[in-house]
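TL;DR need structure tokens for one chain.
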Amino acid sequence: MFGNKPYVIGETAVNHEGDIKYLYKMIDDIAALNLNAVKFHLLLKAESYLQKKHPLVELIKKWMFSHDEWCEILKYSREKGVDVVALCDDVESLIFINQEFPNIKAIELHASGLNDYYLLEQAAKFSGIVILGVGGSTLDEIQYAIDYLDEKGKNDIFLMYGFQSYPTNYADINLTKMDKIKNLFNLPIGYADHTAYDDPNNEQVSTMAAMMGYNVLEKHYTPDYGVERIDFHSAVGKGQMKKIKENMTLALKVRGSGNIKMTVPELAYGNTGPMKKAIVARKDINIGDHLSLDNLWFKRTEESSVIKQNMLPQLLGLKAVCNITEDEIIDFSKINYEFKKQSVKDFTHKKGE
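>> reply
TL;DR here they are.
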């Protein structure tokens, strides 16, 4: 899940609106797009999630799937070769996952239930990764959830940054905050993008966290781009999703690993002589002459030199053991070389200073 390759989670949310055939279509598309995981919102008991008098209770019930239907949905997803992430809105869903599907890739707690004691209690029992949605959450709320899980012996925790806001204000995304959260809690973190589906910069914004080194992206998907269904506001279609993953691959590749060791192309680019100027004879140097600032120079040459530019202080005062013609590269075979530690000060400061 973590590394230098994109890990894209295609979120189905409630875009299916209770149509199980539509949800299977979403799974098929996500698998065909070669996304890494499919994410579902599981809810088995509406009254466990919403007040009985809540105006959305009856509507949400129409969008829910049964225990047996979820069993078939999750089995089908695994057969399609994609990882499963289950965002569980109620305790009943977490119990279901722990009992029936303990080996899925991850469960997720939405930011709305980040400090829900009963959700955390069940989440701590899960054998895989626990994703904590931290969008719109204070640092103490994040710490509370982490501490609870840690005290229960659960340390396989992943933070998911991002929140829904329409229209999206780019300044509110504040991707740099991800660095601070990651460092504060010393945990891996991913980006859940909710840029509006018709935002002209949707693909670019979705990729920007990857350029910062965050390879996990959670993105809403819909088979019917722009059609007014539940959760369509930030859902992209096939073409956009494909392009986003391609851009993430490119961004992570360009960003690189940060390894300070020079690559083969860098070494070639920094080659002394053909690229970086080599130390050459400024004029003819006779056998027995001492090397000095008066008879040495720096020039680009056709051949390579083993003597680097910063070795000049060590060359000063050494004797030539053969005649060296003007423009000829200085190398160890032409001088009586004895190692001596010198610095730039040896030839930049006047005597007495």
